[in-house]
Amino acid sequence: MANRVEGVTEKLLEYAMQEFLANGYNGASMRTIAENAGTTPRSIYTRYGDKEGLFAALVEDAANEMKAFFGEPMDDYSKRSVDEQKELFHDDDFNSEYKGYLQSIIDLLYSRHDEFRLLICCAEGTRFADFVEDIAAIEERYTLKHIEDTGNDVITSGRAGKRLIHLLCSSYMHGFFEVIRHDMTKEEAEVHIAQLQDFFANGWDKLLNP
Questions:
Q1: What is the separation, in whole angstroms, between the first and last Cα of the chain?
Q2: What gap in Å lies between CA 1 and CA 131, rounded to an integer?
Q3: What angle (nearest 5°) sits at the alpha carbon of residue 196, between those of residues 194 and 198?
């Protein structure tokens, strides 16, 4: 029995990746995945519970890793002194550090390209459908924390409301992950994200420090 089923899990994941990438979650066929893997749909349900469980087996680790990549540096930065945080857009050392941080995110995106393509382009109908918005929520939470911790008057003065801050964080993150949606090469992504970051950094600086 062990020899007969050896390699089935690997084949299921391989052909599930192909099927979900080709047809999206909603259009993917469990029967097609099973047939291509040389097994039956029952073996999928036995291993993964349901279709979404199979999808999750492909993407959950990548999703969690990316959330950590965004969240942990922001949390670390929020623990710096208030005076240091007030220099957010005028600290050359931090700007250099942040560029390295962005490069590490790009490296992760392209080292697990297919998983992130599933998350960004093929996840409608799953609990991962709001993956980009979940990342944006992390950005928004720490942006609001930065405003509060530094005593910035951007909200109390009326220069921006929380809705605008939400929209800006969401726009940035959707723009960030467009590199996968538009199938950019890694080199193209590096240029795009650097330009996007410069645009938003200048905009945030003007908004927070008029």
A1: 71
A2: 39
A3: 70
Q: What is the DSSP-derived secondary structure letter of residue 157? A: T
The second-level CATH assignment, the architecture, of 1-49 is Orthogonal Bundle (1.10)
Structure tokens at 55: 């999808």
Q: Where are the domains of the chain?
A: 1-49, 59-208
C-alpha 36/C-alpha 119 separation (Å) is: 23
What is the value of pTM for the model shown? 0.90
Q: Are 169 and 101 in contact (CB under 8 A)?
A: no
Phi then psi for residue 79, to 5 deg, are -95, 0
Per-residue pLDDT tens, the chain, 210 aa: give them.
Answer: 333 456 889 999 999 999 999 999 999 999 999 999 999 999 999 999 999 999 999 999 999 999 999 999 899 999 999 999 999 888 888 888 889 999 999 999 999 999 999 999 999 999 999 999 999 999 999 999 999 999 999 999 999 999 999 999 999 999 999 999 999 999 999 999 999 999 999 999 999 999
